[in-house]
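Hey, can you fold this?
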Amino acid sequence: MKIAICVAARDLVHAGFALSLAKIAKTIDCELLLNLGTVIPQQRNQLIKEALEKQCSHILWLDSDMHLPENTALQLLKHDKEIVAASYSTRMPPYQSVAFTDSNDLSLRLNESTGLHKVWAVGMGCMLVNTKVYEYLDWPWHQYIEHKESQSLMGEDIYFCKNANDAGFDIYIDATLSKNVAHYGTKSFIL
């Protein structure tokens, strides 16, 4: 089993993320793949191609604005699921989980604090995907989609989750691990 740790980043990563990445990478047999750019769906699609070319069995998606425990990869692997993730908080108020439980009502979010839970979709800041999922799904695996009713964009992570669900793949959240995952943001401090 060889895991591709894939990071789609802009031009900088958080120092705390770099430390998390180093600690996680030393716990598993892995290929570290980084793609710098500004079009996240395009970056993710390229990273998947690279992971498949390197014959990796799984992709561990990590966003460069996350703080993760050292045992992240091992914890997700032990569930033996095709798609399993950790949830985390949004960076803007109202702070809430990025794990959605119902495709028809996106206000319903997972708020469990322990155990393994099936969800409809989740942000991909910390997600382990068996590469056979990508071999089964059609390209592009990630893209932005306009949602005309709400006049908003569906993110590339939710697009992937929707397609995976439609193809019969279940998505799980490790809520216990999620308690130890943080989403870095920026804040101004004033005296």
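Oh, and this one too while you're at it.
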Amino acid sequence: MKNLKCALCALLLALIASVTHAQLAKTGWPTGLMKNVTVLPNGDLKIIPSKTSSSHDFDYLVGKWTMHNKKLKERLKNSHEWTEFESTDENHNILNGVGNTDIFNATGTDGKVYEGLTVRLFNPKTKLWSLYWAASDKGTMDPPVVGSFEGN
């Protein structure tokens, strides 16, 4: 259970750290991102949802999308070489609006087809979202990333 908590912390930190280089260059490092999260003495996370958190937070994604992606060739190795590829994504609301799902499809530069699935679930009692990810190269569902949106 402790490993799961560590994984959740790592996923939350990875999500926060995923702000793009271009955004950082324009605005500087964002502040106050973790103001609603506390690590309790037993290692559990206490997450307080934003006042505006709702089951409509991902409605803007609904539809079919074509995207141009850039990915570092090697992560965490001071790499500056990027690979670029196209992808598609189809997103739907599910479970009478308390859920959202999408399927991501891409063909990598190596010619391999890659598919990913996101399941997003909104808990009306806690007002928190849980985001789950599964990818065709692993065949397992990752532990959820949990949180809410603040403002826009």
